[in-house]
């Protein structure tokens, strides 16, 4: 059974200033999504499920789905504000969907096999897909044994502003103890650090293992996701800015002893476009990978 790739592509890209998921970066106008799907195909994934906004259906069909036809099976689901479990409604003042946890729950309608989850606006590297595919291939589809790909923090920063990262605490056996979300991480005169809730600067080594939202699961996740999402809605549903994040769900399952999560360290190249100023560097990095032979000048023929 080949694993499925879920691509989270319903984000609005507020800091970037435009829709990152469909921005061209490759020499033939390829998006970052296309490089991820290309690497997933080479790693043995058999299907890709996109989570998008309904208003972008025609655009994705023309600019992404048409290119992938004949290369991999494509399905898609919509993430909308009003797509909630029975008994819940959208509170006044809410204008955006409910986060990555809701997105994955909605994708479950098209997934019955082990699967990976990635962001649609990040470049993860071929090695990461191979490692995650190997993990999923060796996992009991009924088990709650999951995985998160871990990158060194220093390889995930932007030169043009601060970032938020989920720092992984890992035990001696390589299993996740928990993830701690740190915000305002960036390079400082003294190295790398972040500001805590009180505004104090806290140093980091840069070698901390961080999750970039590249994770692997079995279908057992969906039942857990629904339970936790409903609990989130009861507790925080009236907060117009609260979001149900996938790392928070994973943390909760680990803490409750309902899942084990293996951390898969990778040396693969990661890069992304948090800010518009990041774009030229991403184009340059893809051009270098293409020149090295890691990718063809045109992904789809």
From TrEMBL:
Keywords: Oxidoreductase
Top-level taxon of origin: Bacteria
Molecular function as annotated in GO: glutamate synthase (NADPH) activity; nucleotidyltransferase activity
InterPro entries, A to Z: MobA-like_NTP_Trfase, Nucleotide-diphossugar_trans
Signal peptide location: none
Gene3D superfamilies: Spore Coat Polysaccharide Biosynthesis Protein SpsA, Chain A (3.90.550.10)
EC number: 1.4.1.13
Domain MobA-like NTP transferase: 6-58
Alphabetical list of Pfam families matching this protein: NTP_transf_3
Name recorded for this polypeptide: Glutamate synthase [NADPH] large chain
Originating species: uncultured Cytophagales bacterium
């Amino acid at each position: 059974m080949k694993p499925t790739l879920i691509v989270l592509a319903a984000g609005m890209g507020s800091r970037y200033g435009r829709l990152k998921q469909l921005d061209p970066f490759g020499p033939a106008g390829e998006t970052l999504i296309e490089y991820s799907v290309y690497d997933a195909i080479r790693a043995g994934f058999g299907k890709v499920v996109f989570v998008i906004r309904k208003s972008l259906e025609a655009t994705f069909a023309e600019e992404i789905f048409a290119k992938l036809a004949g290369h991999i099976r494509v399905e898609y689901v919509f993430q909308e504000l009003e797509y909630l479990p029975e008994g819940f409604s959208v509170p006044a003042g809410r204008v955006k969907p409910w986060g990555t946890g809701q997105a994955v729950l909605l994708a479950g309608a098209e997934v019955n096999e082990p699967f990976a989850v990635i962001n649609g606006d990040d470049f993860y590297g071929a090695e990461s897909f191979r490692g995650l595919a190997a993990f999923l291939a060796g996992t009991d589809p009924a088990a709650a044994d999951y995985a998160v790909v871990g990158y060194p923090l220093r390889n995930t920063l932007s030169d043009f502003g601060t970032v938020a990262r989920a720092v992984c605490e890992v035990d001696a056996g390589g299993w996740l103890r928990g993830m701690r979300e740190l915000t305002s991480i960036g390079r400082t005169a003294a190295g790398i650090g972040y500001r805590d809730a009180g505004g104090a600067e806290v140093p980091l080594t840069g070698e901390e293992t961080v999750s970039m939202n590249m994770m692997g699961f079995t279908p057992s996740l969906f039942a857990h996701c629904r339970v936790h999402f409903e609990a989130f809605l009861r507790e925080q549903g009236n907060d117009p800015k609260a979001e149900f994040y996938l790392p928070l769900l994973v943390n909760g399952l680990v803490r409750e002893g309902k899942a084990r999560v293996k951390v898969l360290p990778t040396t693969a190249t990661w890069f992304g476009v948090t800010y518009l100023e990041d774009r030229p560097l991403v184009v340059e990095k893809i051009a270098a990978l293409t020149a090295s032979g890691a990718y063809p000048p045109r992904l789809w023929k």
